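$ fold --in a.seq
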Amino acid sequence: MACEYWRQWLAGAAWLCVSIAAFARDVPDKSVPKVEVQGTARDRDEKPYRDMLAAMDVFVANHGLAPTASLRFKVFPRHAGVSMDGLVLHIAGDHTSIPVPLAPDGTFTLPRDAAAADDKAVVRFNRKIGSLAWRADVRSQGVPPNARRLGDLLLECKVAMVGDLVAYVHHPINMMITKMEDPCRTMPINMFYFADRPVFSVALVAGSRRKVMPAAMLHGPTAPMMPNQEDWTFLRERVFMVKFKSLYEQGWPDDTLLEFDFMDDDAPAAVRTSPAAGARS
């Protein structure tokens, strides 16, 4: 008796599901809420394509900071255990699927596609959300491989503020700062950057002027406030910080070079240079 009851109930439920599905096919898409299965596309590391386009616009508007530079974007592993092998990138939307080539160093450029922007597409990797640290990458021509140019870094900061490519804790105050007008130049904030290799020391060089940056500007704070949200902690040996407001107030120009002594160099310049010479500013 109970088995027959449940058989009839299941049959009725099945009929109801079929009826709902048939009804849904006849209803315009805008009135049917879309549901995505958890653990698939929505679980991927991504940024809104429109935000990335806005970041590209900032680069064009401020190109005078780095006239010979080009803009690329770059991703790093955000924590231990994230493999960069087999990394794949797409611009993806309901009606958009554009593969984006990735360079071996994790850099890429994005095409401008009006249809993808209208489709509210995202720039999506095949990694789980929170796996990657996203950055802008601005490189002027002629800069030595052991150096970065100050104007390039400032332009990276401006681009990053718009594209959400900044290393910061997503606290309301920090998020408000990113929306301010030119926070890179006007706010006394430390911007986190990754060098190409582990850093021993960094010196500011502009013509005959030279100053070794304080050790406190390397490798990040000793005790991160929120380690799970601060994406530089896994690569802290490569981290250096720049406070643009202070440097520009001290008269360092856009063409200033930040020269790196790397940990794997045979003879770091910090050893070869006397403390008095390194302290000149």
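$ fold --in b.seq
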Amino acid sequence: MKIIECPRDAMQGIREFIPTEQKIAYVNQLLKVGFDTIDFGSFVSPRAIPQMSDTAEVLANLELEGAHSKLLAIIANVRGAEDAARHQQIDYLGFPLSVSETFQQRNTNKSISEAMQQLARIQDICHSHSKTLVTYISMGFGNPYNDPWDAETVIRLVEELDKLQVKIISLSDTIGVSDPENISYLFGNLVPAFQGIEFGAHLHTTPATWQEKVEAAYQAGCRRFDGALRGYGGCPMAKDELVGNMPTENLIAYFENIGLNLNLNKAAFASAMTQSGAVFS
């Protein structure tokens, strides 16, 4: 079981700039917990995501000696991939590929077809710099734009990614519209059909629906889950103030309740929970 903690996703939409020193201290605390991966920052235009403009500085000040967590940075184009790939400390480059043409344009200023072409070049960059590409299929369970969506479209997109030898794909419920039925259908069909791909779940949720979503994904074979402490962050297009990231503490409680040993440092996690309140206040 892999838990990916996503402070980048929790922070990026906050308008007031979180001081760089505070970000460094927070990510350093998260590194002590023992998460499989920390999605810590992004190499994108500071005009697009001002909150992440200090990602390189944060990275330079992380206490990585003795830490077991791998680092993931989000990129949106070839230039961002080149910038991120120069940093030896980064293990994963994450690219958002949408099922929705509208969201792909809004998110990366590209069509889906153009994004696929960029993705092929980014995969080459990853190979040449010993990085692993993580592709997020955003709007993977529906979209608010009335763009066409069905599960078969998602499966066809996975087939195209498989041709590019993408090894990690995270299905992203960008606006919190997934339900146990479509979660079970997608993971239940994709996991056995593409055994060379590791599938993850990046699920946004309301407080009332988190457990049914996690349970459906887990029972359908998903073993990689993204979360953010206290469920901070979310998508502004959700149009529901209750929709946020999957709370990491809920993921931990669920998996421990069914008997899984996540090998996390509980004292470090408790300190991170306390620290998160100050970071996101």
